[in-house]
Amino acid sequence: MNSIYDAIIVGGGVIGGSIAFQLAKRGKKVLLLEKDRLASKASSAAAGMLGAQSELDVDQPLFRLATESREMFPELAEELKDTSGIDIELVNKGMFKVALTNDGAAKLKNIIKTQQAAGLEAQWLSTAEARKAEPLLSDELKGAMYIPKDGQVSATRLSLAFTKSAAALGVDIKEFVHVSDLCTKDGAVKGVVTNIGEFSCENVIVASGAWSAFLLEKLGVTLDTYPVKGECFSVLTNSPLLERTIFSDGCYLVPKVGGRIIVGATVKANTFDQKVSLEGISTLMERATQLLPAIKETELEKTWAGIRPQTGDGLPYFGEHPACNGLFIATGHYRNGILLSPITGVLMADMVEKKKKPQWSAFRLDRAIQPLFS
Amino acid sequence: MNSIYDAIIVGGGVIGGSIAFQLAKRGKKVLLLEKDRLASKASSAAAGMLGAQSELDVDQPLFRLATESREMFPELAEELKDTSGIDIELVNKGMFKVALTNDGAAKLKNIIKTQQAAGLEAQWLSTAEARKAEPLLSDELKGAMYIPKDGQVSATRLSLAFTKSAAALGVDIKEFVHVSDLCTKDGAVKGVVTNIGEFSCENVIVASGAWSAFLLEKLGVTLDTYPVKGECFSVLTNSPLLERTIFSDGCYLVPKVGGRIIVGATVKANTFDQKVSLEGISTLMERATQLLPAIKETELEKTWAGIRPQTGDGLPYFGEHPACNGLFIATGHYRNGILLSPITGVLMADMVEKKKKPQWSAFRLDRAIQPLFS
Amino acid sequence: MNSIYDAIIVGGGVIGGSIAFQLAKRGKKVLLLEKDRLASKASSAAAGMLGAQSELDVDQPLFRLATESREMFPELAEELKDTSGIDIELVNKGMFKVALTNDGAAKLKNIIKTQQAAGLEAQWLSTAEARKAEPLLSDELKGAMYIPKDGQVSATRLSLAFTKSAAALGVDIKEFVHVSDLCTKDGAVKGVVTNIGEFSCENVIVASGAWSAFLLEKLGVTLDTYPVKGECFSVLTNSPLLERTIFSDGCYLVPKVGGRIIVGATVKANTFDQKVSLEGISTLMERATQLLPAIKETELEKTWAGIRPQTGDGLPYFGEHPACNGLFIATGHYRNGILLSPITGVLMADMVEKKKKPQWSAFRLDRAIQPLFS
Amino acid sequence: MNSIYDAIIVGGGVIGGSIAFQLAKRGKKVLLLEKDRLASKASSAAAGMLGAQSELDVDQPLFRLATESREMFPELAEELKDTSGIDIELVNKGMFKVALTNDGAAKLKNIIKTQQAAGLEAQWLSTAEARKAEPLLSDELKGAMYIPKDGQVSATRLSLAFTKSAAALGVDIKEFVHVSDLCTKDGAVKGVVTNIGEFSCENVIVASGAWSAFLLEKLGVTLDTYPVKGECFSVLTNSPLLERTIFSDGCYLVPKVGGRIIVGATVKANTFDQKVSLEGISTLMERATQLLPAIKETELEKTWAGIRPQTGDGLPYFGEHPACNGLFIATGHYRNGILLSPITGVLMADMVEKKKKPQWSAFRLDRAIQPLFS
């Protein structure tokens, strides 16, 4: 007979792993189900940028979520290292969001002004100043916004650290399990149906990234989400070319430990096809060379693609289903899954524990499934 | 707007590929949809034995199907080579089904008698005779049944040859497409719903191996099928150790081109977990060494697992759904998918063309879904 | 005690394999030594073009060698398939050497005239005519030279087929063996010294490609050779984009079975570094897209590099060392190792058997090591 | 023109990397040359045990070297993390050296006594006590020696951390460079000859592991060394099976981060063949299962082999060549390369700086090459 779990999490990526970790820390009995291998999809495909200020506008609700999540990383890194032995390779050397045109420079200067007004650190650097810090940057750039706090981590190691820490705290993990349905009774979750049998639980959290829609659709929940493919490549050097992440429209370069640089990412909507196209990689190579000419000499290590969950209004969904007690959803993180994973874990654990967090109402489910209330 | 296909095949493995190839040869407009990559699951995991006489009993309906399918290979090999350029590496050097005990030897002798009575070639060899043909076989064996006609092919190349030949004949192929539902009207198929949109068609053939159940269940069709994992490994030698396939209870050795030997396969029911276990490989290694001591010195190349579709009565399902015109199913090939793929392609193409084949009624769907008729 | 070999071949690539195969056919007792794995370097990195007429000028001595070698492929393909079971995937659909400029077109027309005068098949096609045969070629090309006889093979399978056929004929093969010296007596070879001991023999053939120089230098033989790196990539499609090989200055596209296309190759002299550079791949991608715009949509499969042995005058070296009886050298095949492998095998076997072939004197060693005679 | 290096290190494994790091810290201008890729051979193949007390006898000179080196790891781990960003995954949870027989137990108890007498921490545990700490250990063991200080690291990450830290401190690194000779003048090193030209230097340190002999032999230095192959495999689990390293005769299990366990290692002398044999892996699997029955259920991740440099008397060689000033040698670390890498780096840097360390005279070169003095 199966025991009754406090929560079953569907999805073993960085979001499911973070939720499992937080619930386990609160003493919950948790089962994590993954249809493939842990962290085998978008979570491992990410470059690991923590681009709160570089990717988002200051007046977006997502901005506040992102900066709060970013602040959690230093402490989280230590906690995960202690629990799992895994170093997430957090690098806090900041980011350069560079301008390729004078227009771009003007725009960045405005963003800096807005962010400074909101109390955030950001600073304009001339091309010469930027090249003093990063001498191999192209001298044809038109300056850069320096964001000291937008760091980066190893996405693969973070995802692994979450799930392995969760396992160390007692979470049961099963891979290659396909969840096909919920068991419900009187409008409340009672368990899940899978290809290896049923499991009983009080709560189910769907955190399957771009694949969430398949299960949710089966459950009669239609969120406004769609998959977006991103292609990347990495290069290797013996001596590092960069210390800081370089971010521009259409291309970023994230310097990893050991002289590795990850270059990303293309944007192709509405496909689950994980193939890497010649055109995608070729375009990224051109853009990367424009930013950092010396990258031409580096060794091409590998190429890959990931499928990220985007939503109609660009905001993730966090919430409990209005018509089904105990069914929670956390998806739609798009390009910010790594950055948002720490706060998503805490936020969803709070929801399961019925702790209200009114400040995050922008991400509620009923903006998508309001008809259910009528 | 999408064009209307004569047939949409769901599943890009060896069975789906064979059906696509046969339908294309008959001038049908065909779309092949695969949820992952072509031939990425059981079709590539198979060892490629064509074990009609070694795996099956002469009075089983499957036996006749298997021997007929086996006879199709020589001509098929040429046809696929002409169409796709791919050599399926058909080897027709026969098989030794060996006895490890005197009881086993007696049993094999009986099988030989029965098969000879049925007009099939099979012959008893003493251990000395067997070792004359295969000098590295263990001298502790208790003789062998020699089956001249049970050959073997490269499973991966056969699967690829089917799909690439189909493509060369005009079949459209789409990978990473998830079919979530059928479109029907007045009890007849009109198309399929997928994550990249709807496609119109006259007929749908579900040929997704062990994954067929997920889609069929959604369509309200419950066949008595279940997945069975098989683990394998391969070794490499510079000089070949074997010419013929060696088959025993619990272990077979299939000599491939280039001095490669595939050793298979464990049997683990009711799991989609594609992980290779230490115990599975360790047990196979012991058994292989018992049959062919010299295999100890070979280089271990790789290990893998595949998930095969088994059925309650051990027979595959071929047929049109009784309550849904145009919905065809071909699944449940278990360990014989490679062997049965040629005849399955022809048989299903016949069905789509409404050609009756009464001799194959043992495989009809209604043995499983009879309630639908009441 | 080691037995005495008729010949020891140093190098397990396509050249060493071909020589081993020919010597074994002539009843010689042969040992093949490879410092790494068989065919692990340039032999597997090649695209497999048989570009006798596309790569060479009609009045070069190499041209005659290349065309003779090319003619050997159809019969060789059958022989290797019979002996080893391996299909070398010989494709005889010809090649288009395309012009990117009007100047280039004029040049090609001249080459055609010269080749026709020499009795070879070659034909000018307008862009429209070329696109009738290969509809996806760019319409910005300026016509093409059609060479019906310049086919292609799978380089990896050819290399493997040679060594495995040699093994089937009794050749001993040892991998990961480092030959450090020769044993000689009275100016004649008596054996080789390796890290696993000494082996006695009558003849030694050095066929280690770009690595030949290391051993030869140690033996006091300085040939005018140097390594040239070539980078390649491959793409995958479900429906083939090309039937024929497309060749232009700086880029070729070779359509392989299964919808694969190999794109090559850069040229970087004087390095053994097998790393693939971002710049190399990026440049090839641009050029390939210029020839075949539809390649942009294909899936990038992989990238790799090989190190080819070039010589000062661009001609290979075939011969017996003038001051050391029984020491033979076959190296310097540069980009034509696959194409020249059949004739090299025969030619070197002839030399070992003391059969004179005066027509190939252009490739004699003493053009490089003449001082040895003085 | 090449600049003059203070030191050129031949070999980019864990030993060469450690020496490069130490010399760079002392302000030396260093060039590191590697014939293949950095840390691509034995350094990455190691399990990373720091088995000073488990592998060695207390009265051996190597024992003192090993314990001193082991003590350096905690500080080194921080230093390498600071310099390169790479966490070497040092785990300090101790080791269980287990007894499989009563005789083995008696022997271990004696060792404990000797080590305690020498002031080292070591403790006898009954099987019940050992299983209290490691509940999945077999109950058929006969007790264990607990060594609190024998920890472990990630061998691959340590090797990478050394070379990348060296690079960060200004060391030049070149891969795929073959050193074929020394330049000397008046009995002193002046540079090295490589396939990409000559490089000038004051000192050369040969640290090429099992491959050192090839270069040294060429230089007329014959050390009494030979290669020893070791085969390993790794398994994966979601929940860790072990916390501490388990060591027995013929098999060890090293629990890595993320639920990975490395199992090693076979011992095959006098081969550079890096192939993994069926027999080697099969034997290790049996032994591992005997120690930790639950390992049967784990997923087999991969198998590999490494070639370690052993010496005639089992001791490494550290020293300057008596007849060639500036030619240093550091090789022969056998199974202790990872453990001994920190102290080897310091020791060789001291030698290059002409600092005498009389306590390490047991490792001097002249025990092997004494004839050179006569």
Attribute tags:
homotetramer, 374 residues, alpha/beta, FAD/NAD(P)-binding domain, D-Amino Acid Oxidase, Chain A, domain 2, 9-stranded mixed beta sheet, 8-stranded mixed beta sheet, 12 helices, 26% strand, globular, oxidoreductase (chains A, B, C, D), EC 1.4.3.19 (chains A, B, C, D), FAD/NAD-bd_sf (chains A, B, C, D), thiamine biosynthesis (chains A, B, C, D), glycine oxidase activity (chains A, B, C, D)
CATH superfamily placement of the largest domain in chain A: FAD/NAD(P)-binding domain
List SSEs of chain A in N-to-C order: EHEHHHHEHEHEHEEEEHEEEEEHEEEHH
Show unreliable segments of chain A: 370-374
Return the CATH architecture of the largest domain in chain A.
Answer: 3-Layer(bba) Sandwich
Helix residue percentage of chain A: 25-40%
Q: How many domains make up the coordinates of chain A?
A: 2
SS-based class of chain A: alpha/beta
Oligomeric organization of the protein chains: homotetramer
CATH class membership of the largest domain in chain A: Alpha Beta
Shape of chain A: globular
Range of strand content of chain A: 25-35%
Cα-atom radius of gyration of chain A? 21 Å
- Summarize the main sheet of chain A: 9 strands, mixed
- Calculate the mean pLDDT score of chain A and round it: 94
Could you tell me how far the N terminus lies from the C terminus of chain A, measured between alpha carbons in angstroms?
39 Å
Count of DSSP E strands of chain A?
17
Q: Supply the number of helical segments of chain A.
A: 12
GO molecular function, one term (chains A, B, C, D): glycine oxidase activity
EC number (chains A, B, C, D): 1.4.3.19
Keywords (chains A, B, C, D): Oxidoreductase, Thiamine biosynthesis
Pfam families (chains A, B, C, D): DAO
